[in-house]
Amino acid sequence: QTYLEWINRFFQYLASREDSSGTDSFLLDRKSMTDYLSFLAVNKRVSASTQNQAFNALLFAFREVLRVDLGDISGAVRAKRGFHLPVVLSVEEVKLLLPHIKGTARLMVELIYGGGLRVSECCRLRVKDIDFTSNLLFVRQAKGGKDRSTLLPESVKPSLATHLERVRALHQADLAAGHGDAELPGALARKYPNAGKEWCWQYVFPSRTLSVDPRCGKIRRHHVSDASIQAAVRDAVRNAGIAKPASVHTLRHSFATHLLLRGVDIRQIQEYLGHSSVETTMIYTHVVKDFRTAPQSPLDALAHASTTYALQTPSEKSRGQTSPGAWK
Description:
mainly alpha; 5 strands
């Protein structure tokens, strides 16, 4: 759908250029494509990610739909994303945020912040992925198809255990009604036809309602939608009076930054977050300095020195001395 929208805009651009010039400017070639990308950057002032999205859409249209040979496009102008620091909440701001979230949403937020989870990873957690003994959460098939383990906060274990008791009762009621068959990843449903009804495969945060799986026609209880937790955090940020554009993903950034502040090795944080490269995790080292005690500005030191000099006695000034501790 996004590609179709970009292709439509591209044809509208060619039509407007033809009308303004009075000549046949409706040519589908490399020059028209690069002209449009330049138009987006210079006239529309779109961001780098938007320009790159338009580039990918037009490249797909030319190669796969129109079958137009663009030749060598390695020299085409591509926008580069600038260096942006993530939004991070301080420890005090997280303490201020949490009381404004209630119920299951509060539990999900605590797991996201306490384990550095993405919101989709929290929604897709299954019962078997929680290890209460080792205080670990196992994230399956995350971004890039990778599995990893991360921290299960000790403080959240009592409320999580109570929550799982309610979920188990709901699962038992679904089984009694002839449902309770959870979706299994990959081809496990064919290999183990009855595994979906086992307790270990159930979602930790199931939906409140049953729905029909369009792929197989079975009535199932899917996991909760991430929209609900996103709305809860958005409202909590506003009600807490936090003047930052914070979202659910901000809690993942805060998890990594706060671990760095506590001296946790960056390689360990990389494993918790599931980053393929440590360079991705290194961005949080730029954020950490904003939360540490900042050095005194030279201008403030100069003002302090002037004040100290003004407080000296005439005899101290003549001798070039300062009062005890003035230059501490």
